[in-house]
């Protein structure tokens, strides 16, 4: 079931959502100071391509620096990526077959707003 949902996800919204994260990551990696944001963006891009069967968990070793970084990320990139998830999720929920994909889009909003201090892990 995960494979079927991931393939449908990839075709309907995963490719362009991952492209948004890749563009944000490239922009962040151009500046030396924002490379950690770029790496987090690339990590989420991989998750946005193939989300079913994986989940996002908080890292225990994340500290104040990741909180400050998340605030900066939220202002410059996170809000725009979250808006993309909301618009895509609403569009997918209009169709019956797209409802699980829309819900998955809504579940990706927290990590798109605050990616630092998070880790993407495989589900058993």
From TrEMBL:
Domain of life the protein comes from: Bacteria
Alphabetized UniProt keyword annotations: Membrane, Transmembrane, Transmembrane helix
Keyword Transmembrane helix among UniProt keywords: yes
Pfam families: YccF
Signal peptide range in chain numbering: none
Residues that span the membrane, as ranges: 30-50, 89-106
Coiled-coil ranges from the UniProt annotation: none
Cellular component terms (Gene Ontology): plasma membrane
Domain Inner membrane component span(s) in chain numbering: 4-54, 68-118
Name by which UniProt lists this protein: Inner membrane component domain-containing protein
């Amino acid at each position: 079931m995960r494979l079927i949902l991931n393939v449908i996800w990839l075709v309907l919204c995963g490719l362009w959502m991952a492209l948004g994260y890749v563009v944000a990551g490239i922009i962040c990696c151009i500046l030396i100071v924002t490379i950690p944001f770029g790496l987090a963006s690339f990590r989420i891009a991989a998750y946005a391509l193939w989300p079913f069967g994986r989940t996002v968990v908080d890292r225990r070793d994340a500290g104040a620096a990741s909180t400050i970084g998340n605030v900066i990320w939220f202002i410059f990139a996170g809000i725009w990526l979250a808006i993309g998830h909301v618009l895509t999720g609403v569009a997918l929920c209009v169709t019956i077959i797209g409802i699980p994909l829309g819900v998955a889009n809504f579940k990706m909003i927290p990590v798109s707003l605050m990616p630092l201090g998070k880790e993407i892990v495989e589900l058993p």
